[in-house]
Design a protein that fits this description.
The chain is of the alpha+beta class and about 210 residues long. The protein is built from one helix and ten strands.
């Protein structure tokens, strides 16, 4: 008795073309996901920095109005010191840091000659050094809406009780007295190192208003 074997007309399995199509789709979807995540992460990081800067300004305002004392005195103003200088020392502020300070000397500007922070004095007014640990940085600073200051210049904003409005001190190259020009606002532009086209601008007006825009 003989047995007859029939070959299947079609073999089960995946062809090389089908495998390549699946791999191509996987690579495309993975690339879109990674790109979108990187963009989202960068956007979240820069938003967090903008919020930190705005919060530091509000803290200075709150310390001044709330009569926070230093060394038994309750008349000192409080402020925040900004610069976009990439090579300044950390206690002078830089494009990777900004400084919350107590204006103990009463000259409406930030002074620090001993490079220490935490115990403010007339020659060392640093109250808290706020470092930017992300890949973002302060790229530009403007006064009066559109006047771009040099990267080595500085702007301090100071609050003194009982006024909730800040006073601005602009110093060319970070030295000397405050500019005699009237300053009604300042803008701080921040962006990531890898993508300068993504940025946030913190606008601080002399009426005490703070806003963040893209």
């Amino acid at each position: 008795m003989s047995k007859v074997f029939h070959k299947n007309k079609y073999n089960k399995g995946v062809t090389l073309i089908e495998l390549l199509v699946v791999l191509s789709i996987f690579v495309i979807i993975s690339g879109i996901t990674v790109f979108s995540y990187g963009k989202f992460n960068s956007s979240l990081s820069i938003q967090n920095l903008a919020d930190d800067i705005a919060l530091a300004v509000r803290r200075a305002q709150g310390y001044a109005i709330g009569v926070r004392g230093t060394s038994g005195m309750f008349t000192d103003g409080y402020g925040v010191h900004f610069t976009a200088n990439p090579s300044a020392s950390i206690y002078s502020g830089s494009n990777k840091s900004f400084i919350l300070f107590a204006d103990i000397s009463g000259n409406n500007r930030y002074d620090n000659s001993s490079n220490v922070c935490g115990s403010p004095s007339a020659s060392n007014e640093c109250l808290e050094l706020l470092s930017i640990t992300s890949l973002d940085k302060i790229t530009e600073i403007y006064v009066n809406d559109s006047t771009l200051i040099s990267s080595t210049s500085t702007v301090d904003l100071i609050f003194k009780r009982p006024n909730p409005e800040p006073y601005f001190c602009y110093r060319v190259n970070g030295t000397g007295s405050c500019s005699a020009s009237t300053i009604y606002n300042m803008k701080i532009k921040i962006s990531p190192d890898a993508n300068p086209s993504t940025f946030k601008i913190i606008n601080i007006s002399n009426n005490g208003q703070i806003s963040v825009s893209s």
